């Protein structure tokens, strides 16, 4: 009886493991302001599948942008499980000197890498990824953010995760609004 139960348990474990892919996407993310520190993050197929499903459910470009916002937050949360970026807080002043803090350079670099992974997998159906962009309002107020462009209209949007704590959805905003200095009311 015991050996039968053990064999059954072993069979269940083997079946469960065959359902999980050993494949993982590895991205290098950066943190500690100005990308001074870097670390690899592994995204398993099991972690990526819910993100794919969320993007696939988007019926139009606006819904895809909403999904992108949530997916980017989730990708940061997964990164925070493996790296010190879990300590990152919105903006630059709530982090203190914590290892894992991120400024807009870190966020724009990482968010662009996340978006590139989604695009490479064919999951961004209605948008394409552009290079990060720096907004200059005053000499000391430079701000970097990731960008996407809606395929049909060619309208550009900012995807900016800097404003929020690690794992929260990113701000997705029309490029013109962002250039004009529009930001979420989070401070």
Quickly list its features.
single chain; 187 residues; alpha+beta; four-stranded antiparallel sheet; two-stranded antiparallel sheet; 5 helices; disordered N terminus
Structure description:
With 187 residues, this protein is an alpha+beta fold. The protein has one domain (24-179). It is built from five helices and six strands. A four-stranded antiparallel beta sheet has the order 3-4-5-6. α2 (45-56) runs antiparallel to α3. The radius of gyration is 19 Å and the shape is globular. Residues 1-21 have low confidence and may be disordered.
Q: Per DSSP, what share of the residues sits in E-state strands of 2 or more residues?
A: 15-25%
Number of helices: 5
The strands making up the biggest β-sheet line up spatially as 3-4-5-6
How far apart are the first and last residues' alpha carbons, in Å?
A: 64 Å
Written as H for each helix and E for each strand, in order along the chain, the element string is HEEHHHEEEEH
Going by helix content, strand content and strand pairing, the class is: alpha+beta
Question: Nutshell version of this structure?
Answer:
With 187 residues, this protein is an alpha+beta fold. It has helices spanning 2-19, 45-56, 61-82, 104-120, 175-179; strands spanning 24-31, 37-44, 127-136, 142-150, 156-160, 171-174.
């Amino acid at each position: 009886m015991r050996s039968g139960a053990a064999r059954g348990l072993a069979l269940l474990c083997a079946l469960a493991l065959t359902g999980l892919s050993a494949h993982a996407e590895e991205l290098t993310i950066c943190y500690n302001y100005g990308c001074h520190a870097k670390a690899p993050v592994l995204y398993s197929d099991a972690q990526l599948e819910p993100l794919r499903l969320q993007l696939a459910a988007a019926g139009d470009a606006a819904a895809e942008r909403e999904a992108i916002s949530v997916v980017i937050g989730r990708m940061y949360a997964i990164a925070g499980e493996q790296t010190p970026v879990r300590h990152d807080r919105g903006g630059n002043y709530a982090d203190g000197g914590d290892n894992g803090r991120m400024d807009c350079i870190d966020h724009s670099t990482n968010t662009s890498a996340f978006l590139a992974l989604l695009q490479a997998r064919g999951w961004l159906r209605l948008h394409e990824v552009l290079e990060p962009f720096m907004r200059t309002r005053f000499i000391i107020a430079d701000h970097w953010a990731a960008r996407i462009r809606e395929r049909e209209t060619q309208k550009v949007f900012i995807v900016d995760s800097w404003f929020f704590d690690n794992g929260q959805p990113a701000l997705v905003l029309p490029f013109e609004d962002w250039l004009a200095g529009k930001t979420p009311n989070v401070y």
